[in-house]
Amino acid sequence: MRLFPKKAPHIRSDTSNKTVMGDAIVTLAALYFMAACYNGRRAVMLGLLSIGVCWAANTLCVLLRGRRVNLRDFSPVVTGMMIPLMMPASIPYHVVVVAGLFAILIVKQPFGGLGNNVFNPAAGGIAFAIACWPAQMFLYPLPNATLDLWGELNASTSSSAAYTLSVGGVPTADYTSVLLGQHPGPMGTTCVLVILACLLYLLFRGTARYQQVLPFLLVITALNFFFPRISTDGLASAFYEVLATPALFCAAFLFNDPATSPSRDLGKAVYGALGGAVVFLFTRFGGYEQTAAFAILLLNALCPAIDEVAEQYITKKRRLRYGRKVTIDLSGEADFDSDPEAAPNP
Amino acid sequence: MSEKRTRSWQTGGGILLEQHKDPILSQELEQFIPEGRVRVIPELRPWEDISEIGPEEIVQVARLARIVDERDGVPLFRKLRRCMGRRPSVLVDALDEEPYISSQLGPMIHLQKECAGGLLLACKAVEAADSAILVYRGITDLEVKIPRAVGGVPVQRVWGKYPSELLSAQSLVEENGHITLYIGACALIHLYRAVYGARIQTTAFLTVAGNCVSRPCNMEVALDTTATQILDFCGLEEQPTRVVVGGSITGESVADTDVVPVKAVTRAILAFREDERDKKYQCIGCDRCVAACPMSLNPMLLYKSIAMNLHDRVEKLDYQMCVGCMCCSYVCPAKLDIAGRIAWYRKKQKEVRRA
Fold it and tell me: Percentage of residues in chain B with pLDDT exceeding 70?
């Protein structure tokens, strides 16, 4: 039987880039479903527009670089889905378009595209939108206010819990409404229970790594518990700061982008803990009510340094460990006819 | 005893694999040995009891019977000779941690008497300090029960993800002044047959499996039988696209099954039919390969550094410590040939050094 020899390994795991991106898409879709329930079809329309813009920009860049377009590359879809979720459902369409273009054309592709980007594209796009249109970005429609798909929006708007916290007030939403997302805020970041379920799913699938997410959440919770900026006890402070702001959404999605995370578990833990602290400091001393995107961009810049240090540490440990074992070479001894080591006959 | 030593193979990397060992392992061994292939050592009178034979005689019988250890391809007598009088720990390799393969574990379970007898002989030859049979603990889909002891020798379930066997691949290891000798389970069966039956090793144990094989099984096959003959014996449900000789992960994909003979080290013949579509993606930096590497290397960085010809960087990343287990390629969601590229670089560097 004649065959073409194939490369080893002869069995492969079921995970592929498609399933990794698919995990993110499935979870983000759940958030779009919630957003559509609260604010109507406009939320979905924003998502579709953003996906379309990101995908088109990405394809254009790939073609410009003379590469073949891979239709199974869903990374621009994930970026496109994340951007509007950090924005209010009432955001004008052009903001989403510009944010998407900035994310792909400035933050992702100039660095070499998929897997090579230094900064998280979605975080970049959101930060750009905040810097350009802070007024529109921080005015949120009330939950359950169904928005028109097109034209002038006349739904009543309000500021978010993050704003109340930033001016030292206690958010009016009670614990249950915060958990259910019944308070004004970015359209994908308010449904805390759904985000938690998504995070658990991503952790279970190995798409998000607990080594990074847990230190992040622990540090940010602990810091807000011990240093509350509102006049409540630490517990309430930690609850509102983590669950009523986009911190949890960032932990589950933006912060977990594999390309902009350290590769070693040790590095991930340090990066996660550092991330918690940086997000805390940005929220406390930053100029905007929502600064997680900026904090993540800063962290992304630190990632290669953390990676380098972790790599050096692991290399040192590895050399120490495997230097002690001595293996005795037995190769080149497939000869039965002579037995040179046998004791000579007396 | 060697619990600590065997555990220390694992550094946290590695991967858990679905083993696909049953129902092959539960079935009796098949035989494919043509008439006249069983040969005996001329002028050798078989022994009847272990007390009658001395260490030197055991080594000589292993030599005359031409027993090759299936674990590493080294003649068994050489391994025994190296350890004589040095009181090593003798560990029997019945690990079979690669999916589909149970060509050591199967004979160990079904030919317990011969395996244990062979081990006692080997232990006597080298005056072993202690001994144990190693079985991989990660096999979860077993119907057959693995005994706790075989002929009085404890069976140790080695904890660890793939590739704990490969990490111990060096068959003679010296650590803190103590020697550990690894011997394959099948070599011990052949040693038993040689001492008590004066038989020369003319067969090998192997697993025949894969999604095209209609009757997957563990077999004892005469040496030099071709892969085609074995696949015909077991039957093919459909034309395979890939026939692998060796392991399902590290084995070699063959171009012509008619010219591939069974050797003493052949552990398996696997026939797969798979989707041929191109499934290549780009690296997304997911770090799965880094988490999987049992030597705690950074395969992703090595892959990229080799592609960019950054020799100093590759050197710093300890590429020569790669054991070739292919965990990185297995887990890679982009289906990149990471292990292949590192192996290629190692080979190239060796040639450069030689020149």
Answer: 94
Packed helices B55-64 and B185-197: angle between N→C axes, nearest 10 degrees: 100
pLDDT of residue B9: 46
B169 plus B21 within the same structural domain? yes
The DSSP H or E segment spanning B341 is helix B338-354
| Res B3: pLDDT | 47
What Å distances lie between residue B209 and A162, A249, B89, B101, B189, CA to CA? 60, 47, 33, 8, 23
Mean pLDDT estimate for chain B: 88
- B99 and B162 part of one domain: yes
- Indicate yes or no: pTM above 0.90: no
DSSP-derived 3-state class of residue B261: strand
Helix (H) or strand (E) holding B353: helix B338-354
Q: Note the pLDDT tens digit of each residue in A28-59.
A: 999 999 999 998 899 999 999 999 999 999 99
* Domain end among B197, B217, B243: B197
Q: How much is the pLDDT for B8?
A: 42
ipTM computed for the complex: 0.89
Of the residues B141, B171, B197, the one at which a domain ends:
B197
Considering only CB atoms, B249 lies closest to which of A9, A72, A325, namely A9
Of A69-73, A221-225, B348-352, give the lowest mean pLDDT range.
Answer: A69-73
What's the DSSP call for residue B156? E
Q: What angle do CA A331, A337, A343 make, to 5 degrees?
A: 90
B13 and B137 assigned to the same domain: yes
Instruction: Select the residue from A4, A10, A210 to test the B interface by mutation, using most B Cβ atoms within 10 A.
Output: A10
Task: Give the count of domains, chain B.
Answer: 3
Q: State how far the Cα of B110 lies from the Cα of B189, in Å rounded to an integer.
A: 11
Alpha-carbon distances of B115 from B110, B163, B165, B188, B207, rounded to whole Å:
9, 24, 19, 6, 18
Say if residue B38 is in the same domain as residue B153.
yes
Chain B residues near residue A118 by CB distance under 8 angstroms: none
Selected residue with higher pLDDT from A115 and A29: A29
Portion 88-147 of B in contact with A at CB < 8 A? 99
DSSP 8-class letter at B150? E
Q: Which DSSP symbol is given to B321?
A: G
- Kind and range of the H or E run holding B300: helix B299-307
> Which helix H or strand E contains B78, and what residues bound it?
helix B76-83
Same domain, B178 and B212: no
Which amino acid, A217? L
> Residue A275 is which amino acid?
G
Assign residue B33 the CATH number of its domain: 3.40.50
Q: Check A19 against B68: CB less than 8 A apart.
A: no
pLDDT per residue as tens digits for the range B139-173: 777 778 888 888 888 998 877 678 877 776 567 87
Average pLDDT, stretch B342-352? 93
Which residues of chain A lie closer than 8 angstroms to B81, CB-CB?
A: 339, 341-342
